[in-house]
Amino acid sequence: MGKFMLELNKSDKLNDLSYLDWVSLMERIMTLKNYYGLVTNSETPEETANNDKLETRRRQRAAALLKINCIVRLGNKFYIDSKKDPAEFWRLTQEFFQPKTIQNQTTDLNKILSTQLNDEHIRENMSTILENTFHLRTLFCGLTISPKDLIDSVIAMWVIIKIPERFQTTMEVCLGKCEVKKKSPSLDDTWEVIRKFLQRYESRTGQTNQALAASKNQRQGNNNLWNQNKRRQDGDYPKCTPGWHNPLTKHDKSECNFLKDKNKNPKPVKSLVVSTSRTPTNQIILDSGATTSMFNNSSLFTNFTPNTQTIELADGSTIHLAGTGTVKIELNHCFLKLKNCLLVKYLAYNLISLGAIMKPNFKTITNKNKTFNLLDQNSDIILNGTYSSSNFELSVNQNTALEVKTTNQLAKILHQPAGHPSLEYLKEMFPNHNFDNLTCKTCPLAKITMIPFKGQFPIPEQKLRFFHADLF
């Protein structure tokens, strides 16, 4: 009989925790041996008769095949209780492990909800959540009505709420996109947003390290320059004279200042910061010449630190700062949060440094209607606005900082994927947020009932003259 058996490895045999994997393997083995219809009672009488003629001892062999692929304790139990009937053996395993499956569901869900999202180990934390969610999904695969999509959405919302603070702005963008697309957030989409944020952060960190290394080299160069200036003061240095370039100097002849025309007109400065005499406006401009973002209105700042340093404008003049801080602006489709911004009270325009936003593979598209879009590497719109007079002006909903509580806006965002609960139930679902107001256009419409029609219908003169339908 041994030549007819196909025995699994010891680790793959049925035990208290491997029922789902064991069923998958045994279905393939039973199909290979032509026993699957026998153990599941899915054979027709004609198929049973034909198979019995081809193999007279198929029932005994099927039962033995099931027994040897279980651990000894379970194999003997089901083999005796089924009275060596393979179909009964298969049914008993299903009944025995159904409560175990529910316990596994609870175990995986507890593992997910007990995971601590740590800022420094966010990749490992999300990997654990994704792995346990995958296990949880597989436990629902056999159900007729699968709640795995609802479970996925609930876990995604839990991750968004528990995410560390530095990811909050990114999560707000994710929720905003879900609201526009009228769908609930999924765990896969949430992880994709977190992964892209980490890639941008790591790239920015690498650029910062390069800048620090360049700054160190510059300091060393400044020391060398000081030594060169000392030699120049002592007269021990090759010099150029007006109209003549000394070939012993380190600069090229084309770069020699003594050979350049000093009387030519300087190029006009195109920067928006050349003058601060005009009345400041609330316009927000993307400026490629600004080394950092600068604003003229203190109400744009969510946090602020006074500072009395000076900055140099494009025309060479200097002006005192009022302070530095963080600016958070509501755009048409997302929130823009800018750190280390400068407050310059008499600045003509609010300027956002384009270099602080542009990343590799980002691109700007100008449309025929004098508008522009700033797209990321996935062609998603990051910023948009109008293009005029060689300037990019942003389109914003309001030019004031979000100093008011954003809990009402968050309540509106969480209300739809949570199933449109009332404000009281929403507070119980999310106790960490103090919601005090909730407006939803869909909820009043859903509660409208039909009003009886008390009028009279017109009398038709011919068939199909009028059509009647209830509107709801």
From TrEMBL:
Domain Retrovirus-related Pol polyprotein from transposon TNT 1-94-like beta-barrel: 285-359
Annotated Polar residues bias: 208-228
Residue span of region Disordered: 208-238
Alphabetical list of InterPro entries matching this protein: PolX-like_BBD
Superkingdom in the source lineage: Eukaryota
Pfam families in UniProt: Pol_BBD
Protein known as: Retrovirus-related Pol polyprotein from transposon TNT 1-94-like beta-barrel domain-containing protein
Native organism taxonomy: Eukaryota, Fungi, Dikarya, Basidiomycota, Pucciniomycotina
